[in-house]
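Records of this kind hold a single protein each, on a pair of labelled lines. Below, a sample record shows both lines together.
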Amino acid sequence: MIYAKKNVLARHPANPIVKPSDMPAACMAVYNAGVTKTPAGEYVMASRFESADKVQYVWVLRSRDGVRFAADPEPMRFDGPADAMKEFREFTEVKGAGLNAWWDPRICPLDGTYYLTYAANSGHGVRIGIARTDDFRTATPVSLPFPIHNYDAVLFPEKIKGEYWMLHRPVGQWGPTCMWIASSPDLKYWGNCRPIAWPQHFWEATKIGAGSPPVRTDKGWLLMYHGVFPHTNGKNYSAGAMLLDLEEPWKVVARTNTAVLFVEEPYEMIGQVPNVLFPGALVVEPDRTVKVYYGAADFVECLATGTLDDLIAACFER
């Protein structure tokens, strides 16, 4: 089908807004960040940081305008009770050569504080982790909800029907990989797992996964997600938008037929992993404009802007 040109989201002219050269330590790549705007008006970015020896960290950057970010002097660190730290180390360490630690954080405001969902990698494989932070300098482990081979988790910003809810993406053995939902009474023990959204179009034919934590709107919970399609030189990542029912979040109200952001610029094509556009945050401003933050080519962090109304309308266009 032929679609009319329509820029639901526009790339910021300052892109990429965060580069390895912006960091205060030797950095191979800085990308796939979670971002939130605090009640005081500060934008806080928690970004995946790859050191010169390829070890993974989460490094926090801060901004007053959501565009120009300054990095903290050191990465975020974990601290907490001895038993929680023992479990965290077991599931974020690889003996010998390997991709250590935790990455791809999402920032989820919830219960008057902030939670991070992230991918925890170890010799066992990759699984989801949840941590809590009040200052974005130290994080306390909360739980490791599911077994290995599970990624792309985001928490809903409030309880629904008395439960916490989380989107996640287990890796399937057969067929395309889809988006799931689960609920919990305490953020530690999770159940009611079910798939809620599958790839529907070729631009997302290989797999889809949650990008930004959901945002409440009058039309439903709005989130950005990524879709992947196979290409002759690997895989191509694009961004779509989706609305979920406010009271029954396992029900999809509407979603974009096409990608609202797809690989176009050289910084999205050239990097550690080419042709990747990976959304991780959606910030809605008081004037109903939006900021969508995304990682590009597993190398740099970028920004696109638009309006909430256009993004919602795109979910219903056919």
Remarks:
- The chain has a mean pLDDT of 94.
- The radius of gyration is 18 Å.
